[in-house]
Every structure is written in C-alpha cells, then in structure tokens.
C-alpha cells in the first residue's frame, strides 16, 4: 500500500512538472479535463450519513419539489418530497452554497448564491450567483464573483427579471463585492444599491414585504477573521429599510441596541407583514430578540435569545411560521420555538435528530409540516416536530482529513467529518455489481 501511494505521488509530481500534459487547445493551462481522463472517480461512500445544510426552498406552487443548498456539497433537488434526490450543481466550479431561491412567478427559474454565510473557520467560498431557467438542469453564472459569501436572494414576486442579492463578502480579507445588489434585467447588469460602511461590512439578511415588493429590509454585518482571532461585532452592523425597491435606504434605530452589533437574523411575519423579528448579537456574544409591529419604525426587546453554541456567527437564522401568527423559530445548536413573538422560548424536540440547525422550510397549506436543515442533514416532521424522519439519502458529509490503512485484501479509508465523528470503510469489496 505504501509503495502504491509513493508511486501515485511520483506520478502526480511528474504530471505537475511536465508541460506536455497541457491541453493543446489551451496554451495557458498546464492541466485540463483530458489530463486525468483515465483516472475516473467512483463513489465509495459514506452511506446513510449526511452533512451541513445551508438553505432549503420548497416550491410553493408544487410542494413536493424541494431544492437544498448544501454548505459543502452543491445543490440537490427532489420532485417527490425527498424520496429520491438528484445533484444538480456538480458541473459547476464551486461546491459551497449559501442560498437557493425559486421565483414565485415561475417555478422553473432558480437562483443560487454560492459561499455559505457564516463566520466559521471551516466554510468555503463561492464565485457569485447562478441562474437556471429550466428547474436546475442548466446553469449560468450571473456575476458578483467576488462576493464569496451570499446570504439571501430575493426575486420580485411578479417580475423575475428583478432580483436582489445580499452579499456578505470575503471572510478572511476585506474588500470584494459586499452589500446589496439589484438587477432589473435578469442578472445581465448589477447595481450596488446599499453600500457597506467599510471594507469588512456586508449584508447578512434580506427581507421583502409580500404585499409591497418595493418595501425591503436589510441587515448589515461587519466581521473579520484571521488565523489567530475573530471579530464579529462592529459599528457597521445595523438594520436598514427601503420603500423604493432598494434605491434609497434609512437606518432603523428606535428601540434597537446601542453600540456595536454583530450578526443579525431577520424574519417577516407572512400573516401580518407589519411585524418584523430580529435576533441581534452584541459585544461578547450578548444581545437579544427584538420585535417591531410598525414595519421597523420602533422595536421592543422581547428576550435575551440569540444563536448559541459556537456563537451567533455560526447560527442566528430565524423563521416566522406561515400558519400561526407570532410563532417564530430560531436556528441554533439547540433550536427553539416561540409562540408569543419571542417573549418565551421552548427547545424543539431533538429525539432522533441531529442538532446544529441552519435552515427551515414550510408547506404552503399543511401547518404540521416542517423541514429543518442541520449539520447532520435534513429532517422532516408531519406532526409539528413531535417526531422526525431523517433524510438518509443525501450523501453530503464534509471531511476534514482522509487517510488509508494497510488492510488486506482491500485497504480501508478513514475520514474525520465535520460534526459527524470519524467514518471509515473499505476502498472496494468482493461484491460484484451488475
């Protein structure tokens, strides 16, 4: 086994040092897809083990169709409520996804924002936003390639050529494409309609009033990470609103925390869009849950609830129930639900369910149906979270390190997984397929 590994390394070095392996049609590239054509990859697992979910979109016109954005695994689609899944983003050059959105007026139009939006050290970056006009069969990169981490994409409810993209920007450096961008021609051109305060600040959450598509809310977040330190609160963070489709903005302050704020999660009540919810981080992982009943003009602190665990920078998403007014969920290491607008909170049932949640989705007509995406995959409930079914057919594990052993006749491969222990299995078996 060791001799084989040494031989493989030697071949790799030889390839890397031999310009003759370059594609004859591309003089600027040392390697091309034809270079490794004979070295075909095959899937060896893991089986029945999933991974971190960044976003879930349920088609409100056909609720058996779902799209799942994976933090480290592309985009997957089901048309039969999770019975089977198809990877639809594998041919694209990036695998980290922050957001997936279905156009309300045309279910074939799908937008994907690459690069998940949190402050973790283990997240990868993206190369902008993609659009599909055929339900995810084909994709086109529509720009914003320096955004690296996209938090939310909102498509106009009746005109799918109008799209807003909230970009958080690079995690490990300043600059890039940050703020809120708007297109009115389907992504051919973009305008930065909300410019961040400095090179470290982007937009981390975006809402639209379902009654009035010109009414928007955007939360800014300033964060900076280096090898030795992380800074997640800054004076650049805040909540802003626009009444003209994002062309001009007003910062909301009445009732909100004074001083530095950090990551802010927002949600708007589908049943009464005058009501806005926000969970706001402050210095030293403080903060709380806020509610506005007048479209953000004034805010009331309801409780001290913020994303827990490793800190709000990794969680902090909130979701307003489509079927019960003032029922709100906060995604966290141990997620919670409130039935009184954020005053009191109850931990959700985690029996036979992975913790560390990042995404939720609801059924347009069934109030008992809930989907929740966690570091361990997607879980579905048909009884309002009293019981969960694990979607075991999404192979999405994120591995930190992989190593083989010297087992015979087939060596085994072991890997350390993000939040899912260490997994191992044979490189091949004696079972004949076909």
What does this structure look like?
This protein has 434 residues and is mostly beta strands. Helix content is 3%, strand content 38%. It contains one helix and 33 strands. The protein has one helix at residues 2-16; strands at 53-58, 66-70, 74-78, 86-87, 97-103, 106-114, 129-132, 140-141, 150-155, 163-167, 179-183, 191-194, 201-209, 212-222, 224-225, 230-231, 238-242, 250-252, 261-268, 276-282, 286-292, 300-303, 318-320, 328-330, 336-338, 346-347, 357-362, 370-374, 377-381, 389-390, 399-404, 412-417, 422-426. The strands form nine sheets. Strands 1-2-3-4 form a four-stranded antiparallel sheet, with no helix packed on it. The chain has a four-stranded antiparallel sheet with strand order 5-6-7-8, with no helix packed on it. The chain has a four-stranded antiparallel sheet with strand order 9-10-11-12, with no helix packed on it. The relative contact order is 0.11.
